[in-house]
Amino acid sequence: MDRHFDTSYYHQIATSLVLPDRPYINGRFVEGCDVVYENVNPATGRTFSTISFCSARHVDQAVDAARAVFDSGVWSRSRPEHRKDVLLTLARLIRENATELAVMESLDSGKPIKDCLHEIGTEVPNFFQWYAELIDKTFGKVAPTGDDVTAFVVQEAIGVVGAIVPWNFPLLMTAWKVAPALAAGCSVILKPAELTSLTALRLAELASLAGVPDGVFNVLPGYGHDIGQAMGRHQGIDAMTFTGSGVVGAQILGYAAQSNLKPVGLELGGKSPFIVLEDAPLTDDLIANAVNAAFWNAGQNCTANMRQIVHASRKEEFLHKVEAKVAALKTGDPLDPETEIGPLVSWKQRDRVQGFIDKGMEEGARLVTGNRNLDRQGFYLDPVVFDNVKADMVIAREEIFGPVLGVIGVQDDDEALQLARDTEYGLHATVFTRDIDRALHFARQLPCGVVGINGFTEGDVKTPFGGYRRSGSLSRDKGVEAMQQYVQTKTVWIRSLRGVD
Ligand code: NAD
To answer: N or C, which end of the chain is more exposed by having fewer CB within 10 Å?
Structure first.
């Protein structure tokens, strides 16, 4: 067996990892405060390392360092080719260290190593590479004027950016924010989720090795209500970008309003539909998409398509095939490369999701499969499929963020669309149909930031990602659109003095 596909290979790496244990400010690891956080491995429930968290003093230090280097211009006003070279080097270093980073992320979050290797070995470095390549291909504009004026419009780095990310895709969400912000020339202060700080801290070290100047990228591990709040309220931070829950997103808007009116980019939750229209053949591919849409990352995914809306004539066959596919999913040790579903990130999250499952049963949804006691250490949950979900049930309305798929039968396209739209969220939707007119109708009528036709997808680095309604603000991550969070627009209006006395 290829050793890269061997569980013991990844366990061996896990035992030899040197784990970051303190904040990274101004190009070096620094002493944290006396709050020591225990990193718990979700697969075992046991502490595997500790980390010194930050205090408000560290936020001030990081802002001072980020501001000083921003004002110096060594990064913010450096030649585009320079920032490009440095970020390409960082992409290369991430690829070279991908296995170690993937194991670290898997230990910290419980995510299957297969997913971590893909995210960190491919997607994360691609983000740095793509935004690096964009730097010297982005032009300003010259406005139409008479001969007496030359007016140009340029975009300048916004300054010091505060980024706060969640625990479900720790390094990927970090890359979504940090790669475009650094490409723009900003200085960045990142707060990872308290549960998953390790890979972001290691990334900061790699960034320094790649040549990112001291102070340009700082990582502050700490609690949200403490460090996240201090960042949100800080007068020295020029913009905030946040991915996480709607409740905290609203707080970040409040901090901005109460401090310096900094702009805030928000990527929030979702309750996304997966719609199977009458004409869609229930192929293996469709079923694989349905199961992946609900259970990828154990359902801890903002785009999880948990509300599966299926034409009544296809529902029995759909349920039968989904049940078989779910039964074949491998739940287990995240460091086993065959594992498809790992544990949830924490006891708290597991209990929260179990609460939704209990509520679904109580409200009369029919349990098709799952919810067995897995009798394992760690924060595992047996993936659940519900039938007969009704639009007004709690499990159809609230974001569950766990491995729960609910099926709702409908009589026709109009009912499917009406149900799909019946949510306060607007992040994502998937539609399966062979009919181009139906596909276009749904694509236009669904109020959400991403619509996947005949495939569950979030697009790729080139396409913007973000939410309508309560799923986010006007900001987008990914694509050239992401740059808008990290730049501001300046008009330079030059009057000709030719002919003026
Ligand atoms: P969360 O909102 O509790 O935490 C997110 C981050 O905010 C963490 O770093 C946390 O420490 C910080 N935080 C918490 N309280 C804070 C406060 N008072 N002030 C400042 N920062 C604070 O969310 P979570 O539980 O980590 O993540 C799950 C949520 O994230 C889900 O709702 C999910 O839908 C959402 N999410 C959205 C996207 C997206 O792109 N739209 C992607 C991933 C996750």
So the answer is: C
> Whole domain around residue 46: which residue ranges?
3-268
Give the closest residue to 69 by CA, choosing from 56, 78, 82, 80. 78
Answer whether 37 contacts ligand 1 (Cβ < 6 A): no
Instruction: Note whether 277 and 264 are same-domain residues.
Output: no
Structure tokens at 169: 């895709």
Please work out whether the CB of residue 269 comes within 6 Å of at least one atom of ligand 1. yes
Q: How close is the Cα of 368 to the center of ligand 1, in Å?
A: 31
How far the first Cα of the chain sits from its last, in Å, is: 85
CA of 301 to the centre of ligand 1 (A): 11
Query: Is 205 considered catalytic here?
Result: no
Same domain, 202 and 297: no
**Strand 239-243 and strand 28-29: pairing?**
unpaired
- What the block records as the tokens of 41 is 């491995």
Give the model confidence (pLDDT) of 353-368 as tens digits: 999 999 999 999 999 9
- Let me know whether 314 and 246 are in one domain: no
* Cα angle: 227, vertex 54, 159; to 5 degrees: 60
348 lines ligand 1 (CB under 6 A): no
How many angstroms is it from 140 CA to the middle of ligand 1? Answer: 34
Longest dimension (CA), the chain: 89
Ligand 1 centroid – CA 252 distance (Å): 11
- Our answer to whether residue 267 is catalytic in this structure is yes
Cβ of 166 below 6 Å from ligand 1:
yes
At 374-401, the pLDDT tens digits run: 889 999 999 999 999 999 999 999 999 9
Instruction: For residues 58 and 50, give the distance between their C-alpha atoms in angstroms, rounded to a whole number.
Output: 18
Query: Is this structure's pTM higher than 0.85?
Result: yes
Does residue 238 share a domain with residue 278? Answer: no
Which residue, 247, 197, 202, 271, is CA-closest to 227? 197
- The protein residue whose alpha carbon is closest to atom 28 in ligand 1 is 244
Is 40 a domain residue?
A: yes
| CATH number of the structural domain spanning residue 255 | 3.40.605.10
Q: Judge if 212 and 333 occupy the same domain.
A: no
Q: Are residues 241 and 293 in the same domain?
A: no
